[in-house]
Amino acid sequence: MALWRKLLIGSLGGAAFIVALAAGLDHADRAYPPPVDVADIVSKEVLDRDGRLLRAFATPDGLWRLKTTAADVDPQFLRMLVAYEDRRFHEHAGVDPLALLRAAGQFVTNGRIVSGASTLSMQVARLIEPRENRSMLAKLRQMARAIQLERRLSKAEILDLYLTLAPYGGNLEGVRAASLAWFGKEPKRLSVAEAALLVALPQLPEKRRPDRHRASAEKARERVLTRMAVSEVIGEGEAERASAEAVPDRRRQLPAYAAHLSELALRKDARATEHRTTLDRTVQDGLETVAREAAERLGPKVSIAMVMADARTGDILGEVGSADYFDGGRAGWIDMTRIRRSPGSALKPFIYGLAFEEGLVAQETIVEDRPADFSGYRPRNFDMTYQGDVSVRKALQLSLNVPAVRLLEAVGPTRLMVRFRRAEVHPELPPGETPGLAIGLGGVGITLRDLTQLYAALANRGMPVRLGDGIVRDAAVITGDPLLDPVAVWHVSDALSGVTPPAGSRRLGIAYKTGTSYGYRDAWSVGYDGRHVLGVWVGRADNGAVPGLTGYGAAAPILFEAFARSGLAITALPQAPAGAVRIAQSELPASLRRFSTTASGLVATTAREPAPEIVYPPEGAHVELGATTGAAISPLVLKLQGGRAPFRWLANGKVLPDASRRRTTQWMPEGAGFSTLTVIDAAGRAASVRVFIE
Predict the structure, then answer these.
(1) Residue 167 DSSP label
(2) Within 10 Å of residue 457's Cβ, how many Cβ atoms?
(3) Catalytic residue among 45, 85, 173, 409
(4) What is the rounded CA–CA span in Å between residue 643 and residue 615?
(5) Does the predicted model carry a pTM greater than 0.85?
């Protein structure tokens, strides 16, 4: 009894000394706890639209220390923590005299330290102001600091500091960082075994690290579970089940999504500790996984970029700047969503859309796919073959070059560029050049973000949408005129939704288009459903050629896989608006059955009487007139049937002298090669043939 009386007197005397020390420190150091700049002590976090962690950045001193509050943590863990570390946390004023008395008694009885008397407040004081040694004076100072903490902070604030600063091995500090590193999840819902391990680790974080000292970690967790069962914080059955659960044997990487966008967020506001984005982590995870796997298949220097957006709001839901940010061989640090490249055929749908809007063609209108000369510009198809007469729908689906250029010549390259500006997209022309027919086949520079923004208008029934930057919610529908009218958009989408999926991909109910730039440098694919739009670019960051790289072969499979693994349900494409219908070719008005151009553009026809028809020379004929033998060139006889006189003939767009009422005339070719012969009758109806002069 005398021993305990002495211990009690000593404890009371020690407590009085600690209070006096606290008062002295309080007077000398009124700012304690010292003012802390939160931006410097916690990791900066980039979050998705729902607050889920996308990426964290280590603190300046290299620590993973995520800001944590009691609301971020499983309540069961909090109960276990307080019960194990500081049962009277909510009653004492920083120092627990009963715990001091118990610890002293155990020391005297056993001759060694059996249990400590550190309260959570004392531990927070040590974490804020680490002591250099473990002397009695340092311990007393820590107690005094704990009393100061209690005077200035609430119990909740002290607990939040512990949850943020407690060490968990290596450079991990705080419960959130530990839970993500050891269990791969936020600490909001921990199992009993996981909670027990997180309670045990901070006492000896290095000696109990599960990845290095698994046995020690298991013993420490077992002690926590046993005490929790005795204290009836958990049931005995729960403790037994938790003991059977394996301790993690490796440290996981913290979430590391959206590298390029995360860096952009930090550059925009370097002081902020949290950066909200419009990304969806599920979408981002799916896109990054697809990009990484596809890059491995395509080769060591090939990179991939993707942009996925909500076509109604413009919010970026997923963005991949490269296949692997840290892959130097792919120049992964370059954000390829913002680099201008040639889009190849990816702009063709807008040419067709403008032609639909102006009533120049219908989907089943016949258009020629044959070698053509447009004032010296001679486009050729990608495979160097020609289909002859094809429907406009098939020409778009097959991405034929000559039909697209024919339509672009009719609608005008400048008008197409004006339409792009309606969507706040400004493709870059080569220096000193004006819009020409080459823009239809990729003769401009455009970024993946801008190309996706153009297609977002197609998914949004023609109304252009400004894509956000992924950080600030500045996306919006662009006011003003539509990019294309809804009927034209429906015709384009109807045709593109019928394009055959790439080999190995299942049909998803999306409309999509591909593009391949000159020299196999860039492969593109952009697709959309009734709500979302996804753009894909494949190529080398150094603009090097990749033999065999095509939009259909490389980018389209990624597009379909990314759509499927994005986690987003496919939204049906919009139904046809009023006035939109696909009419069979035989039922089209005569003026829309065949598209042909003359010097004055498209020529209308009527169905009252037979339209003119060139019967000689026939379409595609090779006519030998001595042009390649050196002999004098003979005139070519031209014959027609039908039509209403007088007739006007054109050769390669040049009007031949004098209109004639005769159905036979002659033309003197200027030399060898392909030529287009056109006749127009008095009713404005036209017919054309292509022949080769030898």
Answers:
(1) B
(2) 28
(3) 85
(4) 12
(5) no
